Amino acid sequence: MRLFSRSSVLLGSAASALFFSPVSAQASSDPEMVALRREMQSMRSEIHRLQSRVAKYEQTSPVSETPHKHVPRHLRVAGADEPQPVFNEPAPVHTGPRTLAESRVAVPEGPAMSWKDFKAASSKEESVHVGGIQIGFPNGRPTIASDDKAYAFSIGLLAQEDFGGFMGVSPSRAGGNFNNFTQNARRLRLYFSWRYKDWVVNVTPDFGSSTFDGSASLFEANVNYTGLRHTTLTIGYFQPRMEEESAERSGAFEFLERPAIVDLVRNIAGGVGRFSVGGEHYEKRWLVAGYFTGQKYGDRSKDNTITDSQTGAVVRAVGRPYVTKDIDVFAGVGATAAFKVNNGSKGRRYTASDNTNIPLGETSLLTSGVLSNVSQIWAAGPQLALRWKRFLLKSEYYHIGVQQGASVEAPSVLRSFGFDGWYVAANYTLLGNPRAYNEKIGAFTTPGVVYDFDPAHNHWGALELSGRWSVTNLRDGETGNQQTTWEGGLNWYPNRHFRFMLDYQRFIISRDPNTKATVNLFGTTGNAVVGRVQAAF
Description:
14% helix, single chain, two-stranded antiparallel ribbon, mainly beta, coiled coil, 6 helices, 16-stranded antiparallel beta barrel
């Protein structure tokens, strides 16, 4: 308060010193001096009015022209209904309500952000600035960046721990390995990301496993350029995605895993850790992507006899022909091809095989059998989805074609094989914002948590219920068999970073017709119940 009164007195004194002294030195009859005196008088009057306002604010009488005179001041006590000062007040924690965009569950995998988008995302988060360095947590991911965001380093996480088992698997004789209760660290990925403006390097080791945990591998190691509008160009070990289910990202699946047909198709020329050169571009209503691909990371360490590595391609084009607030129609197509497969000591061989979509280390009973002298493999099919308010229905169908070349034993015989598979999945969001289309990845992904879990305030996070029917038929002539699965799932999201899943599955697998087979001689049926705990940053 004293600062205001001192400032006003100094203001008046300075004005007097500036204008009055020079004027008194001039002749009083000078017309210019007369006009200047009038202007000075007007300014002095305005200064007195300002001093009166300051004095009123301080509950004192107007300040006299004698600046050193003591003026008594009185402390005014704030009323009970007025805001009171609070010292050492903790910073408020923002847990809701969130907007539709802010509520989406965190998914660590995604297209590399452009420099422009990264600066926008970082500016919205609380951060600490130290000597030209900014330290913050955009989307919950620890990030160190320069103040202009040109240089940045961040660490992300996806941790998935599965536990459960199988029941009623029959027949028991030669039925394969199906544990009553076991555990598996499905995905334990650390996402390391380095940025210089629109250039981004991603390196992601994975300490989990789709079958048995206990060994480390590489999920990705690539260089990305994001300087073109809505475009990401990539080179290195990457996972090119041609299916809607894969485009969702593994941290956003409705169920524990993809349907078997999607797993088989994506691994023809894509899959985790595949050398890729290409990119994708998105707009509000459509997305296109294309990649030239090579071998997978670790192929030659698994088979050091490979003398000619695989080459292939992956393409995808999707769109939204009709969109309203409550309705979203999605349609697209995906295709992949291996122009040639790895050539090792046993020649160019290919076997399509998968488990029951429950990653607990069970025996893979679905198989095409070993196909030798393979010249090329391809797959293609449509992708469809419909969202109506909180309900989401989606489906994909793929046909796989395998072309055999001539062999030494049969130089004139060229044979082709055809396999098929599809799934239909339905999802309904019980609590929170429903799943919605993400234009940047061309897929429907994650519900939204409006309020974090807080029972005391009747906040329960997000909850969704899902069901899926899938069929994969690898039978062609005397080779291969078929697998059918029925699944139900319940997913609870207490906040944007944690998820608890519970899946039930009924599977039916026809017998393996291979006379040399040692398991699944009569066909196998069974049930599985599996839970998952997930953390994502």
